[in-house]
Design goal:
mainly alpha
Length: 94
């Protein structure tokens, strides 16, 4: 019975990690969007499309979108059982 509770806790930790990672990327993306909005509205008096900050911001948003989608998809399709077995096997070595 104790093993059942340990497995349930471990499963929740995997879920919480994925949700937390997605939330962090959402927050960072909202900050990036705010900065891009300011830059694209002419806040720095430089051509917006060629601005290195705009290019970097757009790139970050693409990467963050990919990570968010991956983390949310992994809530249902993942290798958690294999990850746990591998970690347990490695810990037995110590």
């Amino acid at each position: 019975m104790l093993r059942k509770y340990r497995e349930a806790i471990l499963e929740r930790q995997y879920v919480q990690e994925r949700i937390a990672d997605a939330a962090c990327d959402l927050y960072a993306s909202s900050c990036t969007l705010s900065r891009l909005d300011s830059l694209l509205m002419g806040g720095n008096h430089q051509p917006a499309e060629d601005n290195a900050d705009v290019i970097a911001g757009r790139y970050f948003l693409k990467l963050a979108d990919r990570r968010i989608r991956h983390n949310l998809a992994a809530l249902h399709d993942n290798d958690d059982d294999e990850t746990t077995r591998t970690a347990n096997a490695a810990l037995r070595e110590f």
